[in-house]
UniProtKB/TrEMBL annotation:
Pfam families per the UniProt record, alphabetical: AIRC (PF00731)
Organism: Streptomyces endocoffeicus
Annotated ranges, domain PurE: 80-212
Chain's gene name: larB
The name this protein goes by in its record: Nickel pincer cofactor biosynthesis protein LarB
SUPFAM superfamilies registered for this protein in UniProt: N5-CAIR mutase (phosphoribosylaminoimidazole carboxylase, PurE)
Length: 213
């Protein structure tokens, strides 16, 4: 229960493989013991998403069905500005998991979807907005090329998130991960496949330290 004090990031419930009632009970325990920020559950099954609002009467409950996240409690005031880019719309579940986590951790964030390298003009048309962000999370499957492109265009930190989107030799996101890890754009950090949560935590830590001054 003291993880927020130790690390700046609270305990978060991973909903996969847990009975719905267990996830809801854990959210209630986290919320009861730590009122300094909302309680968050990721990778929640439909039963948890359906029951969440009724399970926490009187609380602010945010359910994102695309992200499969549940947040219980009012988000803290946002600090900093993170932008979550996706190569395609199929990457949105991971991107929205990242967004929900950033919001719960008190980071101002938004998603810019479908700006992948197959239509590079879409990214270039929004380059001013991309360069205005304090940190960027770039979510991509298939060949995983978008984070390298973005990292070569901006001064802000960039975190790449490979997704398990793609055919055949994409091998469930391994090809995208290998591309990102082999990037020739210096300064690109990479998290595990489909790990929007981990990318959000990394960005939140960067921005919290940056905002101290």
């Amino acid at each position: 229960m003291d993880r927020r004090t130790r690390t700046g990031v609270p305990e978060v419930v991973f909903g996969t493989g847990k009975p719905p009632e267990q996830t809801l009970r854990l959210l209630a325990e986290l919320r009861a013991h730590d009122r300094t920020g909302p309680a968050l559950a990721t990778r929640c099954p439909e039963a948890v998403l359906d029951a969440a609002a009724e399970a926490f009467p009187g609380e602010v409950v945010s359910v994102d069905r695309t992200a499969a996240t549940v947040t219980v409690g009012e988000p803290p005031p946002p600090a900093g500005h993170a932008l979550v880019l996706t190569a395609g719309t199929t990457d949105l579940p991971v991107a929205r998991e990242c967004l929900a986590t950033l919001t719960a951790l008190g980071v101002g964030a938004e998603v810019m979807a479908d700006v992948g390298v197959a239509g590079l003009h879409r990214l270039l048309a929004k380059l001013d907005d991309v360069r205005a962000a304090d940190c960027l999370v770039v979510v991509a499957g298939m060949d995983g090329a978008l984070p390298s492109v973005v990292a070569g265009l901006v001064t802000a930190p960039v975190v790449g998130v490979p997704t398990s989107v793609g055919y055949g030799v994409a091998t469930g996101g391994v090809a995208a991960a290998m591309t990102m890890l082999s990037s020739c754009s210096p300064g690109l950090a990479v998290v595990n496949i489909d790990n929007g949560f981990g990318a959000a935590v990394h960005v939140a830590k960067i921005l919290k330290v940056a905002c101290r001054g």
